[in-house]
Design brief:
The complex is a heterodimer.
Chain A: H1 24-37, E1 46-50, E2 66-69, H2 75-85, E3 90-96, H3 97-103, H4 105-114, E4 119-124, H5 159-166, E5 170-175, H6 179-191, E6 196-201, H7 205-212, H8 217-227, E7 228-230, H9 231-234, H10 239-242, E8 246-253, H11 259-272
Parallel strand pairs in A: 1-2, 1-3, 3-4, 4-6, 5-6, 7-8
Antiparallel strand pairs in A: 5-8
Helix pairs in contact in A: 1-6, 3-4, 4-5
Chain B: E1 8-13, H1 14-25, E2 27-32, H2 39-48, E3 55-58, H3 62-74, E4 78-83, H4 85-101, E5 105-113, E6 119-123, H5 128-133, E7 142-144, H6 149-166, E8 169-175, H7 176-180, E9 182-187, E10 227-229, H8 244-259, H9 262-265, E11 268-271, E12 278-282, H10 286-299, E13 304-309, E14 311-313, H11 317-326, E15 329-334, H12 340-348, E16 353-358, H13 368-376
Parallel strand pairs in B: 2-3, 2-4, 4-5, 5-8, 7-8, 12-13, 12-15, 15-16
Antiparallel strand pairs in B: 1-9, 5-6, 7-14, 11-13
The chains are: A alpha/beta, B alpha/beta.
The structure holds thiamine diphosphate, iron/sulfur cluster and magnesium ion.
C-alpha cells in the first residue's frame, strides 16, 4: 500500500482498443487501483476469464496475468472449472451486459446459486457495443438502437437484484460517476469469499450514446448522476417512482459457505470417512 | 487408487467401463448435464471422483459442462464431459474453442437417434460427420470409436493420452449399444496402463501456441501469464483479428499437428484384407454383426475381409485406397443414411465398387444376415 500506484505494473504494455471516452477505461483504472490498495504488487495468483465483447477485452490480453478469453457468454463456467480445480487462485470475470446477462445469463444465475468463489464485474453499457449498438436485455425501455429503430419495446432486467436473490454472497451496483465507490466495492468483493457480483453502469458513447440522444460523454455521465438513487433511499420508493432510475449501492453482503467449501468438506470428508 | 481400480476380470456396462477408464487415465475433473444414453458415465464418476480427490459437477447445461472442462484443463486437470446428440450439438462452438486454444480434453458422445430429440433410448451412428465437421471453420478433430466394453475402457484411456500428447480435444464416439451392453472386461494392473501427460514449459518460456509440433502448456497460476483466446492469435496468445498471415499460420500449424501424426493416431483392426475379394469397412456396434457375417460368408466360400476403424477421424484414406486397388467390392454398413460411406467412396476413387447397408430408427442393429446379403449380392 505504501508504494505509489503505477498502472503499468499490471499491464502488458499493449494499447487498449477502446473508443475515446469509453467507460471501460474507468473500470480498468479503478479495478487495478483496488488491487494495488489491497497490496498486490502484481497480478500473480489472479486468473481472469472473460467472454466476447468490448468489456470482455478489459483483461485479455492487456492485463499482465493469466487470462482466458472464452466463447461469448461462457466465461462463468470456464471460471467455475478453474476455481473448483484450483481453489487457491483468485478468479475474476469481466464481461458486458450482453455477454453475462444476455447469452450467458443462465450461467450467471447458477454461479450465484452455487455461490462459487469467483468475482464477476459486469460492465453494463445497456447495449451490444462491440457489434455496433443493438438492443440488449439491459437497454432502458423506449431507447433507439440499431435493432429498435422505432424505440425499444422490452423492459430491462435488474441484473444485480436478480443475482443478489439467486444466492450471491456479495452484489453491488455503481456507475462510472462513482469510481471511488466502485473501487471500494472491488476491494470488498476480493476480500469476501463466495460469489461476488459488481455491476458498473458505464457509458458507450459510440454505439449507445449517439443514437439514444446524448450529445457527448459528459451528458451521459450527467444522466447517470441525476438518475442514481442509493439503495437505502430506493427501498422507501415504489416501483413506479423507480422506473428509469439506477439503484446504486450494496444489494447483499454475507458469508455463506461457498461451493468449494461444500464440495471439499462435505463430500470428501464423507467419502474419506 | 489401486484399491479403487484393482486389476482383474469384471462384468461391466460400457458406460461404466468408460468411467473407470477415465479414472485410470488420470481424469480428475468431470462436468456434464444428464442425457440418455450417457448418464451412467456421470453417475459412476459422481461416485468415483471424490474417492480420488477429483471434482465432479453437474452443470446447468452442456454449454456450461464443456466450458467448465476447458477451464479445469487450463487449471491443470485431465478433464472430461459426456453427452449424447442434443448435448453434443450444444457443445460444438466450444469444441472448436478447445481446438483453437489447444486445450486437452475428452468429450464422450454416446449416440442416440437424431436429429433433434429423436429417439432418446435408441442406438444410432448418425453423428459421424457431426463429430468431424460439427464446429465452424477449418479443423481436424481426433475421434475414436469403441466396439466393446473392453474398448470403452481402453479407448477412454487412449483418448486422454492423445488429448494430452497433441493438446487437442478428443471425441469418444460411442453408440447406445456399446454404451449400455454388459460384457466381461479385463482391467490390467494399473502400472501397466500407459499414461501420457502434457508437455510443460520451462521457466522463462513465453510461446505456448500454434506450433506444428505441440507447444508446451502452462498451468494457470504458475507465473507464465498465459493469454488464452479463441480469436486468431500468435504464438504468444495475442489476438490478430485481421491479419490473414497470422490466421493461415495458426490454422495450418494446428492442422499439421494432427495430420503429421496420423500414423500414431490412427488405429485399425484389419482381418483377411490381403487377398479377399470383398472388404467391409465398419465401426462401433455394427462391427459386431460384421464379425458374424464374415464367418458365415467364409463358410459359404466367399473370401471376405474387414477393416474396423477404431479411429474414425483422421480418416485412414490411404489404407482404404490401397484396399480398393485389391478388392472388387467394399461394403459399408452403418446405422445412419450414409455418412462414412461417402468418405470410403471418395478414398476408393472408383477402383472398387462401394455399396452401403443402412438402417435408422428404433435402435435396431444391422443384422449379420443383412450384411451377408449385401456381400453376396
Ligand atoms: C455465439 C455468439 N453470438 C454472437 C456473437 C457476436 N457478438 C460479439 S460481442 C457481442 C455483444 C457483446 O455485448 P456486451 O457483452 O454487452 O459487450 P460490450 O461490447 O457492450 O462491452 C455479440 C452479440 C458472438 N461472438 N458469439
Ligand atoms: S463501442 Fe462502446 S463499449 Fe465498445 S469500446 Fe467503443 S465506447 Fe466502449
Ligand atoms: Mg454491453
Amino acid at each position: 500500500m505504501s508504494s505509489k500506484f503505477s498502472i503499468q505494473r499490471y499491464l502488458r504494455g499493449l494499447v487498449f482498443p477502446f473508443c475515446p471516452g469509453c467507460g471501460n477505461f474507468i473500470v480498468v483504472n479503478s479495478f487495478l487501483k483496488a488491487v494495488h490498495e489491497l497490496g498486490h504488487q502484481d497480478l500473480s495468483g489472479f486468473v481472469f476469464c472473460s467472454g466476447i465483447g468490448c468489456a470482455a477485452w478489459i483483461p485479455s490480453p492487456y492485463f499482465l496475468a493469466d487470462s482466458i478469453h472464452t466463447p461469448h457468454g461462457r466465461s462463468i463456467p470456464v471460471a467455475t472449472g478453474v476455481k473448483l480445480f484450483r481453489p487457491e487462485l483468485e478468479v475474476v470475470v469481466f464481461g458486458g451486459d450482453g455477454d453475462l446477462a444476455g447469452i450467458g445469463l443462465n450461467h450467471l444465475i447458477h454461479a450465484a446459486r452455487r455461490n462459487v468463489d469467483i468475482k464477476v464485474i459486469m460492465v453494463n453499457n445497456m447495449v451490444y457495443g462491440m457489434t455496433g449498438g443493438q438492443v440488449a436485455p439491459t437497454t432502458p425501455f423506449g431507447t433507439v438502437t440499431t435493432t429498435t429503430p422505432y424505440k425499444s419495446f422490452e423492459r430491462p432486467l435488474d441484473v444485480t437484484r436478480l443475482i443478489a436473490a439467486a444466492g450471491a454472497n456479495y452484489a453491488a451496483r455503481w456507475t462510472t460517476v462513482h469510481p471511488e465507490q466502485f473501487k471500494e466495492a472491488v476491494k470488498k468483493a476480493l476480500k469476501i469469499r463466495g460469489f461476488s457480483f459488481i455491476e458498473m453502469v458505464s457509458q458507450c458513447p459510440t454505439a449507445f450514446g449517439r443514437r439514444a440522444g446524448f450529445k457527448n460523454v459528459a451528458e451521459m455521465l450527467q444522466w447517470f448522476k441525476q438518475n442514481s438513487i442509493l439503495k437505502e433511499k430506493a427501498e422507501k420508493m415504489n416501483w413506479k417512482e423507480l422506473e428509469g432510475k439506477i439503484v446504486i449501492g450494496e444489494f447483499v453482503c454475507r458469508q455463506e459457505p461457498t461451493l468449494g467449501d461444500n464440495v471439499r468438506q462435505n463430500i470428501w470428508r464423507k467419502t474419506h470417512g | 487408487m489401486a484399491s479403487l481400480l484393482g486389476s482383474g476380470v469384471y462384468f461391466w456396462q460400457g458406460n461404466e467401463a468408460c468411467a473407470y477408464g477415465a479414472i485410470a487415465a488420470g481424469c480428475r475433473f468431470f462436468a456434464a448435464y444428464p442425457i440418455t444414453p450417457s448418464s451412467e458415465i456421470a453417475e459412476r464418476l459422481a461416485r468415483l471422483l471424490p474417492l480420488v480427490d477429483g471434482i465432479f459437477i453437474q452443470m446447468e447445461d452442456e454449454l456450461a459442462s464443456i466450458n467448465a472442462v476447458i477451464g479445469a484443463s487450463w487449471a491443470g486437470a485431465k478433464a472430461m464431459t459426456a453427452t449424447s446428440g442434443p448435448g453434443f450439438s450444444l457443445m460444438q462452438e466450444s469444441i472448436g474453442y478447445a481446438f483453437m486454444t489447444e486445450t486437452p480434453c475428452v468429450i464422450v458422445n454416446v449416440q442416440r437417434v437424431g436429429p433433434s430429440t429423436g429417439q432418446a433410448t435408441k442406438a444410432a451412428q448418425g453423428d459421424v460427420m457431426q463429430a468431424r465437421w460439427g464446429t465452424h471453420g477449418d479443423y481436424v478433430p481426433i475421434v475414436l470409436s469403441p466396439n466393446s466394453v473392453q474398448e470403452m475402457f481402453q479407448l477412454t484411456v487412449r483418448a486422454f493420452n492423445l488429448a494430452e500428447k497433441y493438446r487437442t480435444p478428443v471425441i469418444l464416439l460411442v453408440d447406445e449399444i456399446v454404451g449400455h451392453m454388459r460384457e466381461k472386461i479385463e482391467v490390467p494392473p494399473i502400472k501397466e496402463i500407459c499414461i501420457v501427460n502434457r508437455k510443460k514449459p520451462k521457466k522463462g518460456d513465453r510461446s505456448f501456441f500454434a506450433w506444428a509440433e505441440v507447444a508446451p502448456m502452462p498451468t494457470l497460476g504458475e507465473g507464465f501469464n498465459v493469454s488464452v483466446t479463441g480469436s486468431t492469435h500468435d504464438e504468444y496468445g495475442v489476438r490478430f483479428t485481421a491479419d490473414p498471415e497470422v490466421h493461415r499460420r495458426l490454422i495450418s500449424n494446428l492442422v499439421d499437428k494432427i495430420e503429421k501424426h496420423r500414423n500414431d493416431i490412427v488405429e485399425l483392426e484389419a482381418w483377411n484384407t490381403d487377398d479377399c475379394s470383398t472388404a467391409i469397412i465398419c465401426f462401433g456396434c455394427t462391427s459386431r454383426a460384421v464379425y458374424e457375417a464374415v464367418e458365415e460368408a467364409r463358410r459359404k466360400g466367399v473370401n471376405v475381409g474387414y477393416v474396423r476403424l477404431k479411429t474414425l477421424w483422421p480418416f485412414p484414406a490411404e489404407t482404404i485406397r490401397r484396399l480398393a486397388q485389391r478388392v472388387e467390392k467394399i461394403v459399408v454398413p452403418e446405422m445412419n443414411l450414409r455418412q462414412l460411406f461417402y468418405e470410403v467412396e471418395r478414398a476408393a476413387y472408383g477402383m472398387a465398387e462401394v455399396t452401403a447397408v443402412n438402417k435408422i430408427g428404433g435402435g435396431q442393429i444391422i443384422t449379420p444376415e443383412e450384411i451377408l446379403e449385401e456381400i453376396l449380392s
